Amino acid sequence: MGCVSSNFLNNEDELNQLGHSALGVGHHIVSLTSTTYGLLNTLDPPPATTPPPPSRFTLKPPRSESPEIINSWELMEGLDTESFRFSPLPKPSHKENSNPNLNLNPKKPNSGSVLSDRFERICPPNGEKKVVIYTTTLRGVRRTFEACNAVRSAFDAFGIQICERDVSMDSGFKEELRELLKGKENTVVPPRVFVKGFYIGGAEEMLKVAEEGLLGEVLQGLPRKVVGGVCDGCGDMRFLPCFRCNGSCKMVQKQKQGNGIVVKCSDCNENGLVLCPICS
After folding, report:
1. Where are the transmembrane segments (predicted)?
2. Whose CB has fewer CB within 10 Å in the chain, the N or C terminal residue?
């Protein structure tokens, strides 16, 4: 490889023509020979050959042979069945069941035995076959009010119809409760629960019976509450304004001289209310 010498270009005209050609001014003309061309080929790396793509996996069709059938009875033939560990238990003989004290199917105690064994017989008026609860609707003492709601909700969960006697709406209920639990300490504070003529106690005693799972048995046979039913007379308020004095607790009593005097109504309580004749 070398530059073109003046032997090949003697005329200045030819140089001028080459200078004004497409190669541009100042460029040299290079002549390649066979040897230099072979050297240039060795400088270029050979093209990388791509490996052939791997052959794809083909799934062979399943064999059409039928599965092998193993007969377990043939394998167990000749074995001693009495040698197995988990052998069936022998049936009890008639002599074992002849013991009168042995009860193979014990039954749960009925509600009468649970009440009579654990609770005292104290029956409120007209409370032999119902649930009577002495409660209060006043929120002056928060703990007492929440205890009354807890007892009421426990009975509502069983759908039992209860007879609620609010001592805050009628002082007669408070005196009635004091006479029932005369001689007992802190028994006037509601709530107080009576079931079928037996005194259960307060909120703690009643909820303890519910936790032991005995409340459902104690309430067997009691009338059920109609789902969604509301008293048509009082709307489940259990009290109505007095029909005689219209809740004023006062009446005008006429005398022989024609004059009238104001007296207290004898039909309503101190709040001018009477019990609902439908749901009471």
Report:
1. none
2. N
Bridge partners for 260 per DSSP: 254
Q: Which residue shows structure tokens 């300490």?
A: 185
From CA 141, how far away is CA 128, in angstroms rounded? 31
Q: What are the extents of the domains in the chain?
A: 2-41, 111-218, 239-275
Distances (CA, A) of 96 to 89, 103, 107: 15, 11, 20
Question: What is the token pair recorded at 41?
Answer: 């080929």
The DSSP symbol for 81 reads G
CATH homologous superfamily of 111-218 equals Glutaredoxin (3.40.30.10)
Sole residue written with tokens 């530059």: 3
Phi and psi for 164 in degrees, rounded to 5?
Answer: -95, 125
Query: Whole-prediction pTM value?
Result: 0.57
